[in-house]
Amino acid sequence: MAEMATARQLGMAVCHDCHILVDWPVLAAGERAHCPRCGAHIHQRKPNSIRRTWALVVASCILYVPANLLPITITSSLGDVQADTIISGIIYFIKSGSFLIAMVIFVASVLVPLMKLLILSGLLLSIRFKSAWRPKERTRLYRLTEVVGRWSMVDIYVVTILVALVKLGALANIDAGPAAGYFAAVVVITMFAARSFDPRLIWDTIEEKHD
Amino acid sequence: MTDEKSDTRSAESAPRAEIRSGRSFSVVWVVPIVALLIGGWLTFKALSEQGPVITITFETAEGLEAGKTKLKSKDVEVGLVTRIEMNEDLSGVIVTAEMNKAAESFMREKTQFWVVRARVAAGEVSGLGTLFSGAYIGCNPSKDGKDTRQFKGLEKPPVITAGIPGNHFVLKSATLGSLDIGSPVYYRGIKVGQVVEYNFDERAEAVNVRVFIHAPYHEKIRQNTRFWNAGGVDFKLDTTGVTIDTQSLVSVLLGGVAFDLPDYLEPAEQAKENQTFRLYANREDIEQRSYTVQHYFLMYFDQNVRGLSSGAPVEIRGIRLGEVIDVKLEVNFDDVTARVAVLARIEPERIDTIIKDQVAENGDQQSAPTQEAMENLTQLIGKGLRAQLKSGNLLTGQLYVDLDFFPDAPPVKITQLRGYQVMPTLPAPFEQLAQRVNNILKQVEKMPLAEIGQDLHKAVNTLQTALEAAERMSNDVGQVAGEVSQMTDVVKQEVLPGLKTALDDFQSTMNSIEQTLGPDSAMNHTARNMMSEMAATIRTMRSLIDYVERNPQSVIFGKEKEQ
Q1: What's the 3-state SS for B442-503?
Q2: Nearest to A62 among B11, B26, B32 (CB)
Q3: Do B10 and A10 touch (CB under 8 A)?
Q4: Which of A193, A206, B518, B540 is most deeply buried (CB count within 10 A of its CB)?
Q5: Residue B331: is it exposed, middle or buried by C-beta count within 10 angstroms (0-12/13-18/19+)?
Q6: Which residues lie below 8 Å from residue B220, measured CB to CB, with a gap of 6+?
Q7: Are A67 and B43 spatial neighbours (Cβ–Cβ below 8 Å)?
Q8: Chain B residues within 8 angstroms (CB to CB) of chain A
Q9: Pairing relation of β-strands B190-201 and B206-214?
Q10: Are B28 and A182 a contacting pair at CB < 8 A?
Q11: Å from B39 to nearest chain A CA?
Q12: pTM of the entire structure?
């Protein structure tokens, strides 16, 4: 590790937009560094990364509760109105034998958001307690959350498509329940949380320890 | 934190800059705060909306499903079934339901619960939607009674009347008939209400039928309104012929109740909620039994009463006054006589000018008027009021009791028997005719037919002797003539005077024969009289035979009683 030098160690920074390597100036209070080529805002680490991520993770944790407890779809068929939460929908599919669909919904709607929240919280905690535990795996976990996060939106897409398609009046009708909004918020906020997290911080702790 | 602590030392830059910490509060915290607010609000809402948990017992949980079956009041969801279990003695099920917050106010004893399933009854099809959506528990909220969480579910859906303008009334009836919950109530053919409940009144041994009349028709229910059972077809065959009465096709099939005010009654005060009325058997009854004063009397008839049944009308000059209650035969074994006792009831109120005025003064109730009516009846009998049996309908042979005045009728003693006044009777007009024929026959019977026959016989014998005498005489005449021819010459001179005497004798004999048999003779006259008498006898015999043929019983009972 010692041979590998970070940009910061070399007093440099990279522009996020045009990826030019610049010398990191000494900034006075209230001053901000800008890219000399494209003019973008340059910082060595994402500003307020930990705090922002924490805030977003907490927010999505809170929203995750109503997203799972409230009905996501309201199906009315010949006068029979049924409100389904995500879990009751999964149970319904399991009962009716559609294990594959149940699996997809379970992974996309329950497992992935939950995993994302857990991973992000874990990462944040590990940085908070300056853990040097398996930085590589942790970075991999982070990448996983970033990649997989958007797939949680599958559920929202399914709901929106169903709502749009099944409009047969009294015969059959599907409406989005209140949970749909909360769930979408959870997905979007966790995506923002993953984005606001700076994985370099994982390695910074390692560096400090080596120092 | 990393930013603040970031060490900017590097090999090239000698001067160390002091970097101040950034804003301690980041805007990004607004996101979790908003989320928290939303979460908090949701939690508060969920908690505040949580209503009471209640249990309802049913006989069966058919169609109910925990977590799915809803409780609805007026089709608004008020709760959800959360658990269904058997009760301890396995005789029913206990349904646990979570109610909405709003339902808390009507979790009272009087609130009713029942399972709504598809039902085809009482003229309507209900709950068809439940065929697809499954059953739900209906709820009729009420704010009466004590606060409770344990309810007993109804097995039949009640007719919901809470909050609907109108009034309930109770009808007392001997039988339920074809009525059922939901049976319609008609007012002049308009459906204005329905049967909401019925139960058996143990003490009164009667059925109490509760009906609900919608506004504004409940104002039509007066203290003296009469309800009758309008169910089915009322088919009646009586002295007035065939009567068919129905209210509507629905009521024909499913039964129903109708009410109206009898024509002769003035609307009284409006009836109150839950007032009790009597349920009459049919429309006719409401007119008939409305007389509060009823008077009973007995009549004795000595004739055939075939065709006189209980319910037969008692009329005075064609106006119905009452009806026959009972017809019985009374046999007296001492003198082996039988008579028919007919118990009849009249409603004196039907007689407007004679009795009713006095009745009305007495308050129109069943208090004193009986005595006065009795006196009136006594007076009327004194004036010649008599009862007769008359044929009301030639086709059916029904008889009715006709009261009329016969001023010529012999006065009778006014008697009372078994507590009833006895109304004197007269035989029917036909009966009187038969009586007359009978009298003629009696006279015929008294005629000395045997003597007449003997006399006739004697007369004929006499005639025969006379004829024989005449024949002998003519023989004598022949002989005499022979002798005469033989002895003409001799006799001519000697016998001529003798012959003359003989001829004179012959002449007188012939005269006497003529006297006996001639057209003016007494015998001839007697015989002719007898012949016409015989012809008359045969005629009356023929009518007697005709009558006896039609009324064979008269042979047994005879007509001796007739004065």
Answers
A1: HHHHHCCHHHHHHHHHHHHHHHHHHHHHHHHHHHHHHHHHHHHHHCHHHHHHHCHHHHHHHH
A2: B32
A3: yes
A4: A193
A5: exposed
A6: B187, B192, B213, B259
A7: no
A8: 1-3, 6, 8, 10-13, 15-17, 19-20, 22, 26, 28-29, 31-32, 34-36, 38-39, 42, 68, 129, 132-134
A9: antiparallel
A10: no
A11: 6
A12: 0.46
CA distance A179 to A65: 9
pLDDT tens digits, residue range B347-399? 776 665 444 444 444 444 444 445 565 666 777 777 788 888 887 776 777 78
- CATH for A46-210 (1.20.140, 3.40.50, 1.20.5, 1.20.120): 1.20.140
Bridge partners (DSSP) of residue B177 are none
What is each CA distance from B453 to B336, B449, B474, in whole angstroms? 37, 6, 31
Nearest by CB: B132 against A58, A80, A189: A80
Residues B57 and B92 sit within 8 Å (Cβ to Cβ): yes
Rounded Cα gap, residues B141 and B73, in angstroms:
7
**Of residues B162 and A117, which shows the higher confidence score?**
A117
Q: What are phi and psi of B191, to 5 degrees?
A: -75, 115
Does position B489 have pLDDT exceeding 60, yes or no? yes
What pLDDT score does B533 carry? 92
Q: Is A11 left (phi over 0), alpha (psi -120 to 50) or beta?
A: left
Contact of A6 with chain B, judged by CB distance below 8 Å, is answered with: no
pLDDT tens per residue, range B503-516: 889 999 888 888 87
- CB within 8 Å: A29 and B8: no
**Rounded Cα distance, B171 and B176, in Å:** 10
pLDDT band for B15, please (50, 70, 90 cuts): low
Across the interface, whether the CB atoms of B31 and A82 are under 8 A apart is answered no
- Find out whether A193 and A56 touch, Cβ atoms under 8 Å: yes
| Terminal C-alpha separation, chain A | 11
Contact B177, B195 (CB under 8 A): no
> Smallest Cα–Cα separation from B273: which of B165, B356, B371?
B165
A77 at B interface, C-beta within 8 A: yes
Task: For residues B533-562, give the mean pLDDT.
Answer: 83
Q: What is the pLDDT of residue B531?
A: 92
Dihedral (CA of B286, B291, B296, B300) sign: negative
What values do phi and psi take at B345, rounded to 5?
A: -120, 135
What was the ipTM of the complex prediction? 0.73
Half-sphere exposure of B445 (CA within 13 A, CB side): 7
Angle made by CA atoms B439, B445, B449, in degrees to the nearest 5? 145
Contact B62, B117 (CB under 8 A): yes
CA-CA distance, B58 to B114, in Å (whole number)?
A: 8
